[in-house]
């Protein structure tokens, strides 16, 4: 699909930007180098656009622009910051269908999923527009009776935000929203695979009247590690927020130590999904399907290890297979498509490796388990039964459309299996026993627990994990805290 053809799908073709956005202007890299957006379109593999290949110098210019803007933006009233975010939200709502189509064009997800993401993404701007005027300090009585203490919350400064490709709109708005609410300025490193969504958001920021330099969106492909290093080592940048893999998070954390930046990292997951013998099976099946196969399993909180009590195991697995058989994999823009392609061929290779490893070690293949002849990035929705902890799908996050079922007999056994992971982002379980619900929720070593629910993402929740899934929280009332510092002021009276 050509750039012209892609633009023709949009009501407002001017949203399809191919330059980086720095200091309120659309710019090329100083070197003039560009990279081809390799995943446009994941369903066809055809090129739609080229974007600037930013290097260290380009990145430093964006940081300097953000720093210049911070000197004035930090003094903008919370009410005005709220108004700006609300205007950005309104523009996202007005252009929601075009944003969704851009997401599908470069990410591949079904258009229905892209529409849902667009709404979710916009709501972060709405939420944090309402949080901006509610950043409070405290009054404290110190031990000295002739003194008084107050605390004030101040914006931390320039923030480097590094976003992933699987939710190319929502993972940006979830970071930018609280940063601007706090009074910070940002340099957003657009996802290598999905830069056009990020640039469309920048265009709407421009239209919303966000002051120049407050929001900067930069692109790179081969230079991505170099850009990340500049963001993590430049002393002007006071905060880095990263969503991505645990190995990359460790690299960025090590680099950030050189200037002791404030960090919030949302890293890999390996979510357990537990179905106890007393669960409502219809409800559990419904929620598992959404939790496991949303965006073809390419979410950090999707069910990766599905544990089902032995007494209901066969019946539950059969019900899941019956539902999976009704789905249609195809081009995300096709109205009949329920699930689109994976992001690229490397993702397909990893999924197939996990499937073949499980089968070779005794797992039963009940559905799928193969590449589809629709294109290089398509893999069939797959169901594996009788999976064991010796298989890769237990130890590693698959990040693809594979439902791997494990059998268990006791609560103690399944909690131990669920916690047998280096990461701890999300976990889910289904049971009608109220005592068990509290007991297991507290026992699971994860940052977020879904009890009788498989969809936990919401602007109002504190999103984040424990162990090697990272630290810090995004969204909710806690999200703004990540972009603030607390200053104590003591006065004598």
What layout of secondary structure does this protein have?
Blueprint: H1 3-8, E1 20-22, E2 25-27, E3 34-36, E4 50-52, H2 56-73, H3 78-94, H4 96-107, H5 111-131, E5 138-140, E6 147-155, E7 158-162, H6 170-182, E8 185-189, H7 195-208, E9 215-218, H8 224-233, E10 237-243, H9 246-256, E11 262-266, E12 271-275, H10 281-293, E13 303-309, H11 313-324, H12 345-360, E14 364-367, E15 382-385, H13 392-395, E16 402-408, H14 411-418, E17 423-424, E18 426-430, H15 434-443, E19 448-451, E20 466-467, E21 470-471, E22 484-492
Parallel strand pairs: 7-8, 7-10, 8-9, 10-11, 12-13, 12-18, 13-16, 15-16, 18-19
Antiparallel strand pairs: 1-2, 3-4, 5-6, 6-22, 11-21, 14-15, 17-20
Helix pairs in contact: 2-8, 3-5, 3-6, 3-7, 4-5, 4-7, 5-6, 8-9, 10-11
Pathway: Amino-acid degradation; 4-aminobutanoate degradation
GO biological process, one term: carboxylic acid biosynthetic process
Family: Belongs to the aldehyde dehydrogenase family.
